[in-house]
From TrEMBL:
Catalytic class of the enzyme: transferase
InterPro entries tied to this protein: Aminotrans_II_pyridoxalP_BS, Aminotransferase_I/II_large, HisP_aminotrans, HistidinolP_aminotransfase, PyrdxlP-dep_Trfase, PyrdxlP-dep_Trfase_major, PyrdxlP-dep_Trfase_small
Name of the featured protein: Histidinol-phosphate aminotransferase
A biological process from GO: L-histidine biosynthetic process
Assembly information from the UniProt record: Homodimer.
Assigned protein family: Belongs to the class-II pyridoxal-phosphate-dependent aminotransferase family. Histidinol-phosphate aminotransferase subfamily.
Cofactor: pyridoxal 5'-phosphate
A GO molecular-function annotation: pyridoxal phosphate binding
Catalysed reaction equations from the record: L-histidinol phosphate + 2-oxoglutarate = 3-(imidazol-4-yl)-2-oxopropyl phosphate + L-glutamate
Location of N6-(pyridoxal phosphate)lysine modifications: K211
Keywords: Amino-acid biosynthesis, Aminotransferase, Histidine biosynthesis, Pyridoxal phosphate, Transferase
Name of a matching Pfam family: Aminotran_1_2
Length: 353
């Protein structure tokens, strides 16, 4: 820490991303990336890109990409916001819509970045505990009708989905508060709340190309909602980083939207592998939560979460574990290819012998 850092950041706890080892090959099941490569259309688009154009700034409005996203989700381009990964949307929306004196509410077991961004912008927040079975306490979100809400759907790291009727109830309970639905994992069998954004001007949906579109390294997120919400996000974008999406990512993301069938097929494969993985883990005595995401959340009674994580790491497999109350004996395992998941099951069998 330098002597120049502002006092308020001196003890600030930033977000800890999952490990990204650069010099050792692991079976990487720790950060919910896709095990499948981007579509051939994306590779072709990259090869055909005139790199000479990289000297020019990208289109800050992202018009062409917005038009394609809008067509796919049956909204208007004015209802679409583009960002550098969906983490950026969280950041921009916390900046735009939440204040120090009004509350933001989110589940107690959820994406840990919410707390960090809230802290960064001095937003006061309250955590609504998940129920005993790790489902979201919808009544808990409805009884507080004033606080803005952020909910991942499906939730992370549990993978459990909340039905659209519940999202509707939460939005309806307080029409003057904003409900941000973080749909980073919606493409693996979940149902999107995008159609609700036409009916509710207090629902904003964020999605990402990182998971289902095999594009975590390309950093592209997008939000959909009422035109006025999108304008508010753009106010923040143009006040922080007008060129928040780079030229190459924009071109490749457009190409990936032309290959929607390819990504849908991959999602089906991942859902099938998820089913296989859950059964394999259960046959080893694990509890596995019902997941609609590209990961499963599991607990093995015979072994602590930490030991499971370290034992697998020694065997060349990376998964995610949090030393946090209620979930210290649980681990999150990204769904990889069938072969990767077979190796995981073999390694666990050996560890449990
Ligand atoms: N929301 C949730 C719930 C996530 O798990 C992640 C990935 N860590 C994100 C948003 C952000 O993903 P990205 O910035 O890659 O779009």
């Amino acid at each position: 820490m330098s002597r120049f850092l502002k006092d308020r950041y001196k003890s600030f706890q930033s977000y800890t991303p999952g490990e990204q080892p650069q010099d050792q090959e692991y079976i990487k099941l720790n950060t919910n990336e896709s095990p499948y490569p981007p579509a051939p259309e994306v590779i072709r688009a990259l090869n055909e890109t005139d790199l000479e154009k990289l000297r020019l700034y990208p289109d800050p409005t992202g018009r062409k990409l917005k038009e394609k996203i809008a067509a796919l989700y049956d909204v208007k381009p004015e209802n679409v916001f583009l960002s550098n990964g969906s983490d950026d949307i969280l950041n921009f929306s916390f900046m735009a819509f939440n204040d120090a004196d009004d509350n933001l509410i989110f589940p107690d077991i959820t994406y840990s970045f919410y707390k960090v961004i809230a802290g960064l912008h001095d937003v006061s927040y309250r955590e609504v505990p998940l129920k005993e079975d790790f489902t979201i306490d919808v009544d808990g979100f409805c009884s507080d009708t004033r606080s803005n809400v952020v909910i991942p759907n499906p939730n992370a790291p549990t993978g459990i989905e909340l039905g659209l009727d519940s999202i509707r109830r939460i939005a309806e309970a307080g029409r003057d508060r904003l409900v941000l639905v973080d749909e980073a994992y919606v493409d693996f069998g979940g149902t999107s709340a995008v159609p609700l954004t036409k009916e509710y001007d207090n629902i904003l949906v964020s999605q990402t190309f990182s998971k289902s579109r095999s594009f975590a390294g390309g950093r592209l997120g997008f939000a959909m909602g009422n035109e006025s919400l999108i304008k508010d996000l753009e106010l923040i974008q143009y006040s922080t980083n007008p060129y928040n999406v780079n030229r190459l990512s924009m071109i490749l993301a457009e190409a990936s939207l032309d290959a929607d069938d390819y990504y849908k097929e991959n999602s089906m494969k991942i859902q099938k592998t998820r089913q296989w993985t859950a059964s394999a883990l259960e046959s080893l005595g694990a509890k596995v939560l019902p997941s609609k995401a590209n990961f499963v959340f599991a607990s093995v009674p015979a072994m602590s979460g930490q030991d499971l994580y370290s034992g697998l790491k020694k065997r060349g497999i990376l998964i995610r574990h949090w030393n946090q109350p209620r979930i210290e004996n649980w681990v999150r395992i990204t769904i990889g290819t069938d072969q990767q998941m077979e190796k995981l099951a073999e390694a666990m069998k050996e560890m449990l012998k």
